[in-house]
Amino acid sequence: xxxxxxLALVSSMAISANAMAMQSMDDAALSAAxxxxxxxxxxxxxxxxxxxxxIHDNDGLQTSTGITGATGTxxxxxxxxxxxxxxxxxxxxxxPNFANGIVITAPMDATGTAVDNTRALTSHNLADLTIDTDKxxxxxxxxxxxxxxxxxxxxxIGEIGVSGSNAASTTVRxxxxxxxxxxxxxxxxxxxxxxxxxIQLGAAPQGAMIVLxxxxxxxxxxxxxxxxxxxxxxxxxxxxxxxxxxxxIYLDSIKVSDASNANLTVNAAVSVVGKEGSNNGYLRIxxxxxxxxxxxxxxxxxxxxxxxxxxxxxxxxVQGLQTxxxxxxxxxxxxxxxxxxH
Length: 342
Fold this sequence. Notes:
The protein has about 350 residues and is mainly beta. The protein is about 10% helix and about 40% strand. It is built from two helices and 22 strands. The chain starts with a helix and ends with a strand.
């Protein structure tokens, strides 16, 4: 009997301990147990592939856009689409990303070893996130804060064109009319350095939803950019006799950095402005930080007119580029971009 009593006592103690372990822990208890508040997330992705991206314009070109001189079909049924598809730069033999639409890779080899430490996070992750919540100040001051560090990236984008949209489907995939397609960009490659951003949702006391304030190591480089003019294309457009290919302005590379510096200052605030009166809202991007905004140097290498095979007319260099925008009271250094639907 004593044995059963002892077993019952041990069992009750075990049940009580488990019950305590399953109770929810407040933020203070979590802090004491782990040594920190909030959540840290490491995104260990080395490569992202996207077959195709389509942006559907469901009402086509409208006569009510307010821009004079525009011509084209104005019909609510002439849905068009911007298509980012496969067939990137070079050949399948020289570029492993040739057959893919959009490929995003961190600067690491197949074994996960950083091949360019100046462009890789110490963690070797694609991105590291630190997430916290705060009650803020005043009425409705609470907000979510996400601090993000993003690895330098190699971004391969395939051919970009315009096409007719297929009719909306009952499935997720809608697609485009392959017989009604014109290329506008041959594709491009973008090379970035390590960047950081701070995202706030809710009250956003930092003054914007997303704030970028960092230095991109090694600057920004865009390679293999071809701008295509299909208005000159004849026949099949394959470049053989009587089948003139579309014209192209092809740039070997564009490098951008701060003036007289190898790195690029990235300073921007992204906000979503809501409805106010007759204005239904828009996305606003403000770059620069007033008087401290550095000038920019740009070097365009290999300018080919007509086709990629045409001889280059030379290189173009721009030194000390500075933009300004009106902030409501004066012209300040930087730029303001607004994006809205119509």
